[in-house]
Amino acid sequence: MKQIKGNFVPQALNNTSSLPAVSASRPLRVALFGFGTVGSSVARILLESHPAGLELSHIFNRNVARKRVDWVPDSVVWTENAEDVLQASSSNGGPDVIVELAGGLDPAGNWVRTALANGKSVVTANKKLIAYHGLELEAQAAAQGLHLLYGAAVAGGIPVIPGLEHGLAGDRVDRVEGILNGTCNFILSKMQEGGDYAETLAEAQQLGYAEADPTEDVAGYDARAKLSILTRLALRAQIHPEEIPTRSITDVSAIDFSYARDLNCTVRQIARAGRIDGELAAVVGPMLVPLSSPLAWSRGTENMVVTTGHYGGDVVFSGHGAGGHPTAVAVVSDLVGLAQGSCRIALPSTPAKVSTELEVPHYIRFTVSDRPGIVAAIAGALARENINLNAILQRPGFPLDRLPFVITVEPCRTSALQRALKEIARLPALLEPPLDMQILEK
Ligand SMILES: NC(=O)C1=CN([C@@H]2O[C@H](COP(=O)(O)OP(=O)(O)OC[C@H]3O[C@@H](n4cnc5c(N)ncnc54)[C@H](OP(=O)(O)O)[C@@H]3O)[C@@H](O)[C@H]2O)C=CC1
Ligand SMILES: N[C@@H](CC=O)C(=O)O
User: Fold this and answer.
1) For the chain, which residues make up each domain, given as ranges?
2) Between the CA atoms of 127, 128, 133 and 137, what dihedral angle is there, to the nearest 10 degrees?
3) What is the pLDDT of residues 40-60, one digit of tens each?
4) Residue 322 Cβ contacting ligand 1 at under 6 Å
5) Would you tell me which CATH number, out of the four given (3.30.565.10, 3.10.50.30, 3.60.10.10, 3.40.50.720), belongs to the domain 2-149?
6) Confidence of residue 4 (pLDDT cuts 50, 70, 90)
7) Nearest Cα to 272, choosing from 69, 33, 132, 440?
8) Whose CA is nearest to atom 29 of ligand 1?
9) pLDDT at residue 19 greater than cutoff 80
């Protein structure tokens, strides 16, 4: 496996930009839209490191007065009027580049469209916007000889997007799999050590890792947006994020870590997509990860992406996938690329449909009011779908009126397992729907 860690600036391949480059008479003027966790870190790096060819000129945010900080020089314009900045001509003191760091589809999408329409290139970390409207926005940018860069949109500070575009364009990637949400990894890796779900989520919010609405993180919507971007760039298949079957981590509890440990595994939120028998399969959710897998070693906000290429084999990208400074590094790297006149490699992609059929082993946790015949009834429902049991695990010490136990099954088709679980869910002894998680095989 080849390891790529940290961040790198893509090599300039050609220069079709209509932007002034570093060698031009003045630096690129940069306007930040959004001065929150990532926006303030981008400002810090621009002002502390002074990357060549870049000048922070504007900061836009709603209710901007409360955002002012003394470490930003007086030359920077603070404003709460987005239109003024977007319409300001760059030949008359207006910005050359808009850095969108507010998040969400609207009004961020409109700012990006207006910026491009007014001749300004855009850098963004907004995975939701890119997952839902990236193709349209890239076409708008290209039509005007401008750039739309979003290296921070997947896996925060890890250069996965530049790595796919500049490092793996020569391969045919058949599979992409990994940990794409820092908040979920922060929560699950702390739960593995005995931490409490709600307390850890609150901590992730306080540290600026979570989305403005943390449901985006825990329900898997953030990871599925990132997976759809990766699927387009790595597998060259355009899929709508909402087509990806997605499961929340909220149903995972402490007992699942105990049973996972008995199986030499832990639990992580995994996003995976691949071509299987000519079909494109994609899924996001909590899964059992063998302790021997590098994915199990990730802690806190670490993300990890493993791509499998037809010619080059596995490549692993790892690092911090959330947090102001790591994410800002990716944003500033895009800006440095713009200032140096580098441009993205266009990776062609075509529309695809997501197959929901996978053939993988599963972990299923049942919570029952104990009575004779439950295991036989469950085994019968699985057998009717031709699903083979692998193991039955029952830890002692739980009350009989609320008993959690686990069955693992051999690789089986998703649709067959869903039919069996539907039948099992009707058993009167079941106190809650079974929790079903895929088990990663390596
Ligand atoms: N945080 C992270 O680790 C990562 C974040 N990202 C992405 O980066 C982007 C920014 O994230 P982050 O910095 O964490 O978010 P924050 O919520 O910390 O910052 C967003 C900023 O934008 C402002 N803002 C939001 N909506 C508007 C609006 N309609 N008008 C004016 N100002 C607005 C907010 O103002 P106010 O204070 O009033 O809410 C806030 O200052 C998002 O797209 C996120 O998904 C990507 C990778 C990692
Ligand atoms: N909320 C996201 C931030 C980075 O994309 C995460 O936790 O990964």
Assistant:
1) 2-149, 160-320+345-355, 359-438
2) -40
3) 999 999 999 999 999 999 999
4) yes
5) 3.40.50.720
6) very low
7) 440
8) 107
9) no
Catalytic residue among 120, 127, 128, 226: 226
Q: Is 253 helix (H, G, I), strand (E, B) or coil?
A: coil
Ligand 2 contacts CB of residue 302 (under 6 A)? no
Q: What is the ipTM of this complex?
A: 0.99
Q: What is the pLDDT of residues 370-429, one digit of tens each?
A: 999 999 999 999 999 999 999 999 999 999 999 999 999 999 999 999 999 999 999 999
- DSSP code for 92: G
Residue 120 among the catalytic residues: no
Q: Tell me which DSSP letter residue 291 carries.
A: T
Between the two ends of the chain, the Cα-to-Cα distance in Å is: 14
Per the CATH hierarchy, to which homologous superfamily does domain 160-320+345-355 belong? Dihydrodipicolinate Reductase; domain 2 (3.30.360.10)
Q: Residue 101: CB within 6 Å of ligand 2?
A: no
Mutate-to-test residue for ligand 2 from 209, 218, 299, highest number of ligand atoms within 8 A of CB: 209
Q: Which amino acid is at 141?
A: A
- Domain spanning 359-438: CATH 1.10.3720.10: no
The closest ligand to the CA of 217 turns out to be 2
- To test the pocket of ligand 2, the residue of 124, 211, 228 to mutate (highest count of ligand atoms within 8 Å of its CB) is 211
In tens, the pLDDT along 177-195 reads 999 999 999 999 999 999 9
